Fold this sequence. Notes:
Pfam families: 7tm_4. Odorant receptor. Putative odorant or sperm cell receptor. The protein is mainly α and 314 residues long. The protein has a single domain, classed as Rhodopsin 7-helix transmembrane proteins (Rhopdopsin 7-helix transmembrane proteins), CATH 1.20.1070.10. Helices cover 76% and strands 3% of the residues. The longest helix is centred in the middle third of the chain and has 34 residues, at 96-129. The protein is globular.
Amino acid sequence: MTASNITTTHPAFFLLVGIPGLEHLHVWISIPFCFAYTLALLGNCTLLFVIQADAALHEPMYFFLAMLAAIDLVLSSTTLPKMLAIFWFRDREISFYGCLVQMFFLHSFSIMESAVLLAMAFDRYVAICKPLHYTTVLTGPLITKIGMAAVARAVTLMTPLPFLLKRFHYCRGPMIAHCYCEHMAVVRLACGDTRFNNIYGIAVAMFIVVLDLLFVVLSYIFILRAVLQLASQEARYKAFGTCVSHVGAILSTYTPVVISSVMHRVARRAAPHVHILLAIFYLLFPPMINPIIYGVKTKQIRDHVLSLFRRKNV
Length: 314
């Protein structure tokens, strides 16, 4: 058996192509991406500041919202700065280990985001279906445990990925046909049997999306049943109103995932840039839109932000 059969090698770096087929438009494409990233930074930092500064917002719902904002900041900042460097300065090089780190953070925090959305559904379920027990059920220690469980689940599921990729010999060159280190884009460069990576990636994605969405849907079935049992129409509207922001966050997160999944199966022959633009949309849209949804629909946050502007104008 030769040494090449028992050792694995990997390149010192990869080269991120950007958006294949649209390289000549990179500068123009970067403008909306930069705008969306700026909105994501400003919006989520504002949410975190307002929740930390206002003691009236130190409640379970807003603690979960703060977790979501922090996750969105990490998710967008994991990929967008490098992406903009590719578009503006043609800085396509990323080290092998830097690529693995980016991939780990990207997929881990995506899983954490799904867990936090599930926790927020549980929060709305308790608030509407068991309002008298809200403060006794959703205590500080329980919220901390939920946050730690979300982190532990993501880290446990994603820790194998770097080790699975490190064992391969990469004989198909260093060019990644993507603008960030996406798992399957890197696997395509590897030689040897990659079936386990393919199966593991699909299994984790299906496990997270199906399981979390199932429990979210169950929560809202119980919520809907409880709301329809309320006596007055005004009480029903008020109860539904407390869920609108969360439903918006769920739709902003899962809709791009579903669209991308359908496109991969229905439009397999579509140009590569179509799938890559959908993947970028999934990364950029939720961090950008979630602060707007919660800022507009949540009165306490809206009032606090408006009061800050009034102070500056006085």
